[in-house]
Amino acid sequence: MKSTYFTLIFALFLAVSCSEPKESQLINNTETQVDFALAIHGGAGTIKKENMTAEQDAEYRAKLEEALDAGYKVLENGGEALDAVVAAVKVMEDSPLFNAGKGAVFTNEGKNEMDAAIMNGSDRNAGAVAGLTRIKNPITAARAVMENSPHVFMSGAGAEQFALTQDLEQVDPSYFYTDFRFQQLEQIRETEKTELDHSSLLEMELKDPFFKDRKFGTVGAVAKDKNGNIAAATSTGGMTNKRFGRVGDVPIIGAGTYADNATCAVSATGHGEYFIRTVVGHEIASLMRYGGKTLAEAGDEVVMKQLVEIGGSGGIISIDKNGNIAMPFNSEGMYRGYRKANEAAKVMIYKDEK
Ligand code: ASP
Question: Quick one: which residues bind substrate (predicted)?
């Protein structure tokens, strides 16, 4: 009788201890946990070492490092991933080196119209704006849409009207002018003039060497904070010579910008039309959620296969809740960098850099 009693107790103990998940089962133990981390990009495209001067190379690296430092500081002090991605993106928006904020590309009409988006992984709240012309840091307007309005996406005159009520830094549209970007527009206009009689708009764009050689200077950041939350932010001037109210992938939640604590945070750069059609950010998250893929596997599948199959060039930066980072791109280069807790910043430009 006594021994049956002990057998029962022992069996009960075994059942309880086996059903309780062990620590190794709770975390994705194929990858390491990082306390906090962030990654940034400053655009992808035909970026080759032989086409850059040593000064340009150094200038880009210094600015990327400054952006990483700004985000890292926020995370190190216990700040939110959301604040970190905004801090990093603002540094790049303020630099004429990138196609976002100061240095944004020109529309066909010779204007700078900027798009931006932000997403918070903990509650999947998001904010996006398209076609802004007067807000110095469009990413702050995207955040205001997320936090101070019941909406997710505002565009054109309405978005501007809302942003102007938000106590955000305003500038005259001429602030965004840079010679370099204006020359890019004129170059395209010139090609158009010679092609116009013979080709459709689509044919022209496909033939246009500038189009093929396109450098995408969009900026973005993803981060994981000490609380385990992740976030993504992206900001852009779009594509040179854009017209008809064209909006790219950047402010389309799920395409150029996406974040969900359950999977990953993604910020993209590249030929937006293809990124929209592939729904890049959400596709990567879905491959993780339903396909059981790791961050790196999911990113490769979308950027190196799905996008390539339909002719979409560019890349993404991504982070998951463990602080793993993946930055696949299918173009010649991508301005990019990352910094993990207690590690030095790593900044890269060309394809072969690891
Ligand atoms: N993805 C952006 C767009 O299509 C362009 C870029 O990445 O530079 O608007």
Answer: 246-249, 269-272
- Kindly report the protein residue whose alpha carbon is nearest to atom 9 of ligand 1: 238
**Could you give the number of structural domains in the chain?**
1
In the annotation, is 218 catalytic?
yes
140, 218, 257, 294: which is the annotated catalytic residue?
Answer: 218
Do the domain assignments include residue 192?
yes
108-143 in b/e burial notation, b at 16+ Cβ within 10 A? eeeebbbbbbbbbbbeeebbbbbbbbbbbbbbbbbb
Beta bridge partners of 154: 129
Annotated binding site for substrate: 246-249, 269-272
Q: Give the CATH number of the domain where residue 256 resides.
A: 3.60.20.30
Please tell me the predicted confidence (pLDDT) of residue 213. Answer: 52
Residue 63 lies in domain: 22-350
Query: The pTM is what?
Result: 0.87
The continuous run of DSSP H or E covering 233 comes out as: strand 230-236
Ligand 1 centroid to 217 CA: how many Å?
A: 7
pLDDT at position 25:
30
- The pLDDT tens digits of the residues spanning 117-145 come to 999 999 999 999 999 999 999 999 999 99
